[in-house]
Design brief:
InterPro entries: MoCF_Sase_C, MOCOS_middle, Pyrv_Knase-like_insert_dom_sf. 21% of the residues lie in helices and 33% in strands. By secondary structure, it is an alpha+beta fold. The protein has two domains: 146 residues, M1 Pyruvate Kinase, Domain 3 (Beta Barrel); 113 residues, no CATH class. It binds 2-acetamido-2-deoxy-beta-D-glucopyranose (2 copies).
Length: 323
């Protein structure tokens, strides 16, 4: 009786151990498959790269580019990086187009290496020269939030006034800063590249038709827009794990899924006249069928980390490896 018990216990223990190892091996396999770059035959053709939007001013209009550098920190062009200019309001809160729709009327233009010209309706343009603003010595202001640190260098009084006039139509209220690049390995506040799948925006517009005017894909503020092959259904992006942009494997840019982009009132602001949609669209519609990951914020668009840097060009072939 006693020896039988021992054997039974031994059997159970071995069973549990084997089970545990099997689960661990399966987990490791799944995890390594997800972490490792897909091999040459694991890519499927998805479509072409249609639009590149570079946003040097947080909340401002994008600069459309035919080609752009894609680094681990996101898009870069002429020595400028994404959201290198950030505004704060009088409460010390970051200005974004959801709370200040007229930020979208601020159109940055690249003038030369690290020099931008900001334009806005009925305003004389103003130059923002990062070479000059970041000439030593300069004072760095640190703002910490959720384990993320922003290092800011204040722009000039004339920049604050210009932006306040353009966005608030008064002399004061907003302050413009240069946001320095994070240090290597430092936590980013959001993943660097927001990818939009155009067919999903078409599908959304079909659902909205008759109720409200079609929504411009630009309202979602993606960095790149993928025009997919006709055989690819809308919301196919829900299963994208890896994206490779460029037919040539060596020079292609490779990105890995980081998170769904959860949407807020920002997408209800019309990019042409900076007004909010009176019917709360398209957010209201998205909430009816795109609450995938969050009970309040619908998913539309996908954030990617850059795994292999390089140059992105309009018209390049895009390949996918599914989750
Ligand atoms: C679209 O997909 C189909 C089926 O996979 C393929 O035969 C066709 O070549 C693709 N079109 C383009 C432009 O890649
Ligand atoms: C802004 O543009 C949208 C879309 O064209 C239009 O429906 C809306 O009436 C415009 N709003 C204003 C205030 O002009």
């Amino acid at each position: 009786m006693r020896s039988l018990e021992v054997i039974a216990w031994a059997g159970l223990s071995i069973g549990a151990a084997v089970g545990g190892i099997t689960i661990w091996l399966a987990y490791r396999k799944a995890n390594s498959r997800r972490r490792q770059l897909p091999s040459a035959d694991e890519w499927q053709h998805l479509g072409t790269l249609k639009i590149i939007n570079f946003y040097p001013v947080k909340g401002g209009a994008p600069i459309r580019l035919d080609q752009v550098e894609c680094s681990e920190l996101g898009l870069q062009s002429s020595g400028l990086w994404e959201r290198c200019l950030v505004a704060y309001d009088e409460c010390g809160v970051v200005v974004f187009a959801g709370s200040y729709p007229r930020m979208l009327s601020v159109h940055p233009k690249i003038v030369s290496e690290k020099v931008l010209r900001l334009e806005a309706p009925n305003m004389p343009p103003i130059m923002v020269d990062l070479n000059e603003l970041l000439r030593e010595p300069y004072e760095v202001l640190e703002k910490r939030k959720n384990g993320n640190v922003k290092r800011l260098v204040e722009c000039r009084a004339e920049h604050h006034e210009w932006l306040s006039r353009a966005v608030l139509q008064r002399e004061h209220g907003l302050q413009l800063y240069v946001k320095l690049k994070p240090y290597a390995g430092e936590k980013l506040d959001i993943a660097p590249v927001l990818v939009m799948h155009e067919r999903s925006v078409h599908d959304l517009n079909e659902r909205l038709s008759g109720k409200t005017k079609p929504v411009d894909c630009q309202q979602f503020r993606g960095n790149i827009v993928v025009d997919s092959n006709a055989s690819i259904p809308p919301y196919n992006e829900d299963n994208w794990l890896w994206l490779r942009i460029g037919a040539d494997v060596e020079s292609s840019v490779v990105m890995r899924y980081n998170a769904d982009c959860l949407r807020c009132i920002l997408i209800n602001v019309n990019v042409e006249n900076y007004t909010r949609n009176p019917d709360f669209e398209p957010l209201r519609m998205l909430k009816k069928y795109r609450l995938r990951q969050n009970p309040k914020e619908p998913s539309m668009g996908v954030y990617f980390d850059v795994y292999k840097c390089g140059i992105l060009k309009i018209g390049e072939q895009v390949f996918v490896n599914y989750a």
